[in-house]
Amino acid sequence: MISSDIIRGYNDIIILYLLLEDSSYGYEISKNIRQITNEEYVMKETTLYSAFARLEKNGYIQSFFGEETQGKRRTYYKITQEGLQYYKEKCEEWEVTKEVINKFIKEMG
Amino acid sequence: MISSDIIRGYNDIIILYLLLEDSSYGYEISKNIRQITNEEYVMKETTLYSAFARLEKNGYIQSFFGEETQGKRRTYYKITQEGLQYYKEKCEEWEVTKEVINKFIKEMG
DNA sequence: TGTCGTACTTTATCTGTCGTAGTAATTGTA
DNA sequence: TACAATTACTACGACAGATAAAGTACGACA
C-alpha cells in the first residue's frame, strides 16, 4: 500500500500525464490509473476530483462538457500549455527527489 | 527545490536512517542531511522536531539527555526495534512507490 | 557589548488527502 | 419488472504533516 503522504503532490502529475495524449474525465482517469499500476495505486474519488478543482484553479487544465445525449453528463478536462510546463518541471523535480531519498534507503534482509 | 508534498512521509525515514548507526540529536541530524544531499534537501527545524515527537510517540525512537556539562542540553534519540522494523517496511514501500510514479513520468526535451 | 553559532520549544496556520454521504442516470440480471 | 451494480460526479468536514514566526538559552569570540 502506498501511503497518501508519499504520493501527495504526485497525484497532480499522474492526472496531467493521463491528459497528455488526449482529454479525459474523472471516471476514465481513475480506471486508467488502476490499470496502469495493476491496482497498486488506486486514487480515491475525492482526491481525484479535488485535484481537478485545484489544477483548473491554477490554470493547468481546462474543463468542458461532453456531448453525451444520454447518461450522466461528463466533465472533460484537457491540459493547458501551463499544465504541460508544470508537468515537465515536476518530472525534473522527481529525478532529484528520487536521488535524494535513495541516499537514505538501505537494502536490508 | 524539493516540494514538501513530495518528501512528506519520508522525513521520518531520513531521520531513522541517520539513527541506524548511532544515536544523535536534532542539530547534528539537520547538518548531516544537508551534507549528505549536498544542500539539495534542507529539513526545516520545525519539521525535524515535530518528526521527533511523532516518532517517539509511535515508539520508533527513544530520547535521552546528553551528558554535556556546558552548552545547551541536547536531547539525543536512538532508534528502537519497532523503529527499525518501520524503517525496513518503508524502504520496501519506497521501491513500489518509485515504480508506480515512474509510470507517469515522461522524458521530455 | 553585540553578534554568531548551537540547540531547541511553542503556537498557529495551511494544504492535500480521505471518510462519509448523497444524487442521478444506465446497464445487467434474475 | 425489480433490484443491484456500474457510471459519474458533488458536498462537507476532519485530520495530519509541513511550515512560518517568534522566542528561549548557552557559549565563544572580537
From TrEMBL, chains A, B:
Gene3D superfamilies: Winged helix-like DNA-binding domain superfamily/Winged helix DNA-binding domain. It comes from the Bacteria. Residues 15-88 form the Transcription regulator PadR N-terminal domain. PANTHER family: PADR-FAMILY TRANSCRIPTIONAL REGULATOR, TRANSCRIPTIONAL REGULATOR RV3488. This is PadR family transcriptional regulator. It comes from Candidatus Galacturonatibacter soehngenii.
